[in-house]
Amino acid sequence: MTSLRLDRVSLGFGHGDGVHDVTMSVAAGEIVALVGLNGAGKSTLMRLALGMLRPARGTVHVLGAPLATAPARSWARVGALVEVPLAYPELTTRENLHLAALLHHADPGCVDEALDQWQLRPVADRRFRRLSLGTRQRVGLAAALQHRPDLVVLDEPSNALDPASVILLREHLTRRAADGAAVLVSSHHLDEVARTAGRTLLMNRGRLIGELATDGPDVERAFFDRIHDDDRRAGVGTAAR
Ligand SMILES: Nc1ncnc2c1ncn2[C@@H]1O[C@H](COP(=O)(O)OP(=O)(O)OP(=O)(O)O)[C@@H](O)[C@H]1O
Questions:
Q1: How far apart are the first and last CA of the chain?
Q2: Where are the transmembrane segments (predicted)?
């Protein structure tokens, strides 16, 4: 089953920025990574996939329903983290996770499990605004994943995470996919992507330019070769951007 589908989706911001004519899908049980340079359009694509932005052209389907008419129960089956974690600064870790569980129509019992799984027990009663950057990110990830969503969309989730937390994240995503969830994740860490994702989509100047093979000896080289090649064909200088 296709859990997320974008058909010929475009949204421009002027100066050629934004997302152009993107068609892609993520199937149940699959981890798909999105990679590209800064400003390639990864976050914009994720915002469009989550209904945070409305496409100027094209359609988005989430868990089988068109975005515009997706019922609330579909959104409860989505887990997302785009840019900063959505949390109340004056509430504690536990309170924020409790609210996230309620918003996803989940059993609040999942909060205790999430506190353990994301090693947040020591900061369970600390206010969110007093947490370190990486710990905030762990709270955001716990809030996005604790209700075992069927569709996971995470924008640069390993930002600010320490190596132990990166491993935790990898285990969580692998487990969600093994349980049948569709996972879309953007990243700048090509090694991590190679370890986690089944497919890696390459984005450049707002367009998907194909899949990046991550099983070769030099993924970084392959990444830059593809981008330079795409820029050359478009008559754009990569270094000049
Ligand atoms: N709200 C907005 N208004 C105007 N331009 C925008 C807006 N959001 C994004 N852009 C532009 O659209 C392009 C794509 O931005 P986006 O944030 O999607 O890229 P990205 O691939 O996620 O980058 P990064 O790796 O730096 O997070 C950029 O040129 C950006 O400046």
A1: 39
A2: none
- Ligand 1 pocket mutation, candidates 15, 17, 223, criterion most atoms within 8 A of CB: 17
Phi, psi dihedrals of residue 114, rounded to the nearest 5°: -65, -40
d(CA 220, CA 210): 15
Q: Do the Cβ atoms of 141 and 154 come closer than 8 Å?
A: yes
How confident is the model over 142-186, as pLDDT tens digits? 999 999 999 999 999 998 999 999 999 999 999 999 999 999 999
The pTM (predicted TM-score) of the whole model is: 0.94
Nearest Cα residue to atom 1 of ligand 1: 13
Residue ranges around ligand 1 (CB below 6 Å): 13, 17-18, 36, 38-44
Expressed in angstroms and rounded, the spacing between residue 212 Cα and the centre of ligand 1 is 21
DSSP character for 120? -
> How far is C-alpha 129 from the geometric centre of its chain's CA atoms?
23
Segment 71-125, tens digit of pLDDT? 888 889 999 999 888 899 999 999 999 999 999 999 999 999 999 999 999 999 9
Compute how many other C-beta atoms are within 10 angstroms of the C-beta atom of residue 213: 11
Give the architecture (CATH level 2) of 1-77+149-209. Answer: 3-Layer(aba) Sandwich (3.40)
Edge-to-edge strands, sheet with 207-211: 78-81, 151-155, 182-186, 31-35, 199-204, 207-211
Instruction: Render 126-185 in DSSP notation, one character per residue.
Output: SBGGGS-HHHHHHHHHHHHHTT--SEEEEESTTTT--HHHHHHHHHHHHHHHHTT-EEEE
